[in-house]
Amino acid sequence: MTDVSKTIAIVLAAGRGTRAGGTHPKQWRMLLGKSLTAWSVEAFMSHAEIDAVVVVHHPEDQEMIAQLPAAVRFLYGGANRDDSVRCALKALKDQAPEYVLIHDAARPCLTQSLISRCMDAMRACGAAAPAVALQDTLWRGGDTVEATVDRSDLWRAQTPQCFSYQVICSAHAAATRPATDDVQVVSAAGHLVAIVPGDADNLKVTLPGDFARAERILRGRMKLRLGNGFDVHKFGPGTEITLCGITLPHKAGLLGHSDADVGMHAVTDAVYGALARGDIGQHFPPSDLRWKGAPSDIFLKHAVQLAEELGFYIENVDCTLICEFPKIGPHSIAMRARMAQIMGLDSDQVSIKATTSETLGFTGREEGIAAIATVALVSR
């Protein structure tokens, strides 16, 4: 880490999680297209007050961490939870942050509001953690009930558990026995820990059935937006055209203020439309000479970046080119690959296909090419 970060989130992902079943440790199993760890990491990366994220992982999980954002810092964990936390705290020592938030990777349903509440309490008290008050009657017993336990002061602990860096470091340095979480370590050192009202949906995935519940929670929060784009460019002088980022020889060129990539323009407008942010002309006016002859990937990259800034990712793209010639089929794979590269997607998220208008209309008369596109955006 080259810069001092005021607040760092430590995501603990080094455990083996065998009770959840499956062929991978639970924190690396997929949920709605992302691992549990990725959901947890993205929650912190999306929060304006978190300066950096550290993922503590097992040495055998190198392949798994490749799916996480490059901005994340990765560290090997220890034999147990305490050791993993100490590994992270030690790694941060040279450029110590002011605060750290320690979170279980297997809690993928973390919300921005819960992070904020925990941080507010941490700044006021030096240590804070979320918890949910018990509502069920509690019994003590074996095969039969022996006693009813008073639940009035009992809580179910959650993460992120949040501390002043100095407080958590000194507490771990003084620890003499294993602990189940960091609140136990800090409390044993004599420091008060504020209880923050937790979130019942902030569950820790532990058993196989927990995956279904977590999926229901996350799916319920996701926002889906659809956008469509339509564009037309007419033929003019030239010997080649650019379609979906691929230059093809042709008996004519396409006329336009930029490079006239009608397919890329339709996709770009579909992204802007899904965001309710106008169209290409509003962001890149044709009256501005800077865009004369410009490659259309400038426009598409801007639309994709805007989607990211507004909290959405692109799930898939479907673009149809409408023309008699050139034939699109032989070039569709290259077009899909190029569009995916520009948008930061996999090729199987991009569909490029073509149809004719059966010699009807301006496309049938080979006066130009039209394109229609649909894009699906999903909230992060």
Observed structural traits:
380 residues; alpha/beta; 8-stranded mixed beta sheet; 5-stranded mixed beta sheet; 12 helices; 28% strand
What is the global morphology? elongated
Roughly how many Å is the radius of gyration?
27 Å
Average pLDDT, to the nearest integer? 94
Give me the count of strands.
Answer: 19
Structural class: alpha/beta
Strand count, sense and closure of the main sheet?
Answer: 8 strands, mixed
Low-confidence regions: none
β-sheet strand percentage: 25-35%
Query: Can you give the helix content as a percent range?
Result: 25-40%
**Number of helices in the DSSP assignment:** 12
Determine the N-to-C terminus distance.
26 Å
Question: Which SSEs are present, and which pair or pack?
Answer:
Elements: E1 7-13, E2 30-31, E3 34-35, H1 36-45, E4 52-57, H2 62-65, E5 73-76, H3 81-91, E6 99-104, H4 112-125, E7 127-133, E8 138-141, E9 145-149, E10 155-157, E11 161-164, H5 165-174, H6 182-188, E12 194-197, H7 208-221, E13 224-236, E14 240-243, E15 246-249, E16 253-254, H8 262-274, H9 280-283, H10 297-309, E17 312-322, H11 332-343, E18 350-355, H12 361-364, E19 368-379
Parallel strand pairs: 1-4, 1-6, 4-5, 7-12, 17-18
Antiparallel strand pairs: 2-3, 6-11, 7-10, 7-11, 8-9, 13-16, 13-19, 14-15, 17-19
Helix pairs in contact: 3-5, 5-6, 8-10
